[in-house]
Every structure is written in C-alpha cells, then in structure tokens.
Amino acid sequence: MKTIRIRKFTVLCLFILLLFPWIFYVGAHFAETKSFNFDMNEAQHIDLEATRNLIEKNADNWTDPDWQHQFKKQLEQMNMEVSILTEGGQVILQTDDNRKPSYSRKEQFSIVQDGQVLGRVAIYQADSKTTQIVAIIIGVIVAFLIVAYAIRKYILLPLEKMGSSARQIAEGDLDIQLPSSRIFEIAEVHNGFRIMVDSLKKSVQNQIQLEDERRFVIAAVAHDLRTPLFALRGYLNGLKQGIAGTPEKQAKYLAVCIEKSAQLDRLVEELFAFAKTEYQESGLSTIIVDLSYILKKSIESLNPQALEKNITVIAEGLVKGCMVKGDPHLLERAMNNLIDNAVRHTSTDGQIIIKCNKAEELVTFSIQDTGEGFSSEDLPKVFEPLYRGDASRNRSTGGAGLGLTISQRVIRQHGGELVAGNASEGGAMIKGQVPLAKTGN
User: Taking every annotated instance into account, which residue ranges of this chain make up the domain Histidine kinase (predicted)?
Assistant: First the structure.
C-alpha cells in the first residue's frame, strides 16, 4: 500500500479547502450567467444603455405619472431600479425606496441641457452575489467534510485503535488487530507495533516453554534424587538396626551407600551446572584459550574411567593453535560431559576417537565412540534436558540426563554449535565448532 508523508497530506487538505469553494463559486456564476466573465455581461450593457437613453430623451416626462408607470414596468423587466434627483437633492423619481446597495451595481450620471443640470440619475442594476455566496459556503462545508473524513480515516481512527491495542497489550492480550493507514508516519508506527507484538508473542512463547522446562526439570530431578536417597536411607537404616550382621555384609552395605552418595553428588553437580549455563550467558569470562589443550585436560581427567572398561582413547589433531575466546572452565565442563557420555556408553574394549582441527575462521572438534550410537527416535531429543535413551533409563550409567544439554548450551554461549549423529562405521558422533579467536583479541 502506497503511503504519503503527513506534510504532503496536510498540504493536500489545505489545497482542498481552498479549491472546493472556488470551484463551487465558479460553477454557480456560470449557471447564473452562462459565462466565465466576472465583469458586466453584454446584455447588462445593452439594458444600461437603453435605460440611459430612455431617461435622457424623456427629461420632460420625468414627472408624468403615466410615463413613470410605464418606465417602472420596463425597469422591472430589466431587473433595474432608478432614482432621479434635482441638483438640490430633491427626489423627482425613485422606483424603490428599500434598495440594498450591497447587492446592486450603481451607475451615476447627470443630465445637462443648455448648460443647466436637469437631474442627477442613479441606475441600480441587479448584481446579486447571493447564489455565489451560498455556493461558496456549500463548497467550504463539502471541503471540510472531505478533509474531516480523510483525517478521521487515515489519522484519528488508526491512532485510536493503536491506543486501544496498546492497552490490550498492557493487559496481556496479544491477539490484536492493528489498523492500516496511508500516512507514512502512522504506517511506520503500525509496523513498529507489529514487530513489537510478534517479538512479545515469541518472548511469551519462549517463557512458557522455559517454565514448562523448569517444572519438568524440577519434577524429574526430584524423582531422580528420591531413588538414591530412598536406597541410601534403607541401607543406612539396615546398618543402624544391625541387619548387616557380618563384616562382608556391612562392607556391601557401605559400598552401596558410597555408590548412592556419589550418584547424588553427580546429580546435584549436573543440576548446578545446568542452572549456571542458563543464567550465566551475560557474565561469561572471555579470555583466549586453546581448545586442544582443554580437550587434553578432559581426556586426562576421564582416563581412569576409560581404563576401568579397557577403552582406548585416540586423540587426533590435538595441536596447538586452536585458539578460541571464552570461559575455560565452562568449555572444560562441556568437553568433560561429552567425553564422559562417550565413556559411559562405550562397551568394554571399545575405543573413543577425539579430533580437533582449525579451519578458516572456525575450530572444529568431534568425539566418536564405538557404542550402540543414537537411535532414530533419540537423535531429535539428544540435547533435551533430562532426556535419556531407553538403554540408560535404568540409571546404571548414572547422571541426570543433563550432560549433553549443558555442553550444547556452553558451546552456543561461545558462538558455536553442537550436533549429534552416528558415525558411518557405527557408534555415536558428536561434532562441534567454535569461532576462531581473532589475532590481537
């Protein structure tokens, strides 16, 4: 829809207010005179000359009642009035005592004979502007009606509806109907409102999703915490009541208690890390670190768990120079989660291949294992909070299902991306990329 600026709209309204009265005036004049000449027309000239000649030729009959009667009839036909006065101002003949000079054209002359002024004549010719004045008033009214309609339609109504829409938004109702306008400035406000409403709708939808996610996390974590707590309490009560009567049984009970407490510690730690990645986005520590060095540290910290299952960890391309800008502690946490996930889901005597390379403006890395990989049902949900594949829902591998979620959030907070898939030769593969730190930063 084409729009015009409010300055042009104002000028156009003023033009209409000036043009319409003039058009109506000209139209009324033409309808009355059949001419666009605003001076005396030809017929009026002829009538004026005829009346003048008639008065001059009949100077001796000015006081004759019969002549006056006949003369008045002729003047009525020509829509004219006449007054004849002596040189001293006495009335000789006057055809209309209630004449309104403002609506007549007056022609004055004196009749002189033999050097003597016989009379002073004033001819009043009808020149009424009533029709034209009425036409001008009508033109003004029509122009005002047109301008008022345009102002209401294109300015007042859109502004009123926008004000009403703003009150609806303030009350939380985002399903509003925004009016359109041909005025550029109001159209810009309309577009701004539309963008704001769309953003608010997205924000509200995201807030709803976050609230649903938080409620789900709280419920799921509460459930996950209850299981080891229930078991821990049961075994501790057994020790207290002397159910474990032999040293072997006591050692078994203690081992289970230690395992459950470690599982609780892991659950709490993952929940804390999850919350930290959710709220720490604006407060990231930004220093330049070598991602290959962070990967090496993560491999070293998780090497004992890999050795317990006789898993071979192969590091390829972990050379210096993979510099990224970010928080080293969060990045190490993300890499620990990824490698820990690979260790827990890789069978005994398997292997894990970790790569890190620098490519143009990105640092890429991948972690591949020889486990069962992700099923087609699992892949779309791998990074969802608390999601775990069916094979791990018995908690035998530990964790709250937040590790991959935390890793993805950390990588995204650093301007990168993390994706999950399966290697062509089998097993799961997690690939990621982080922007390469610019020289001098």
Answer: 220-438
